[in-house]
Amino acid sequence: MAREKELPKHIKEFYDRDDKVRKLLDTTHAVHSEAYQKGLDVLRDEQGRIDYQKLEEVKVQDQFLDKLMDHYLTAAVRDLGLKEKPIDTFEQDVILQKYIGVTRGELQRIIRKNKGDYTLEAHEGLRDKLIKKQTQELMPLRHGHLEEGHIEDILKHTGVDKYIAKDRIQTGHAATILDIYKQKGEVTLSDLNGIVKTPEEKGGWGSDVYLTEEAKEEIKELKKKHKKSA
């Protein structure tokens, strides 16, 4: 990757935003697991072993939920740069919805429904769903500052300006290219072919209309060489 000082401002900002988003997602992922570990304190028997059947009792469910919520709010205050945990329950729900994607009431209903079956595995299943949703919401924010006029810079920066039809792609497409470049330090024809062949619902572009004729020809030649060597 080009040295930071050589990067156009808008590309550097994309990389900075990407770092922030990924750190937030990684942190939130860990916070979900940490919160459940806090909740386990009220599920231990006299020997210190975990007894999920304690969650059959509404009283224990609420104690368990209190532990989770306290950790979630503490982490949210830290990661969102808040001064302190709000006392108002509505404000707490707004913060929780923003930070982890679920409110106290929603999590309470889940625990009430599952009772003793709300195990660590069940919690991590919920965590993964919430992280997936959070990812879908946060990733587009990384390129929210990009404009069509920045696309040419991005294509040159990643070395694919002769392979991508710049007038056909949008800033979201450019973000995909930047993702690959940041991860690998280059974007190959194989990478581009993979993107255009992958359906949109699976994160690709779903069409080679975004490729230049030169790119299409070179891809054909690569396929021929691959067949001969196979």
Topology:
Blueprint: H1 9-39, H2 58-79, H3 89-99, H4 104-114, H5 120-138, H6 151-158, H7 171-184, H8 189-197, H9 213-229
Helix pairs in contact: 1-2, 1-5, 2-4, 6-7
Give me a quick take on this structure.
This protein is 62% helix and 0% strand. With 230 residues, the protein is mainly alpha-helical.
Structural summary, described in words:
This protein folds into 2 domains: 4-141, no CATH class; 147-229, no CATH class. Helices cover 62% and strands 0% of the residues. The chain has helices spanning 9-39, 58-79, 89-99, 104-114, 120-138, 151-158, 171-184, 189-197, 213-229. The longest helix has 31 residues, at 9-39. It is elongated and about 70 Å long.
- How much helical structure, as a percent, in the residues? 55-70%
Q: Which segments are poorly predicted (pLDDT under 50) over 5 or more consecutive residues?
A: none
Overall pLDDT: 93
Rg over C-alpha atoms, rounded to the nearest angstrom = 24 Å
- From the N-terminal CA to the C-terminal CA, the straight-line distance is 33 Å
Structural class: mainly alpha
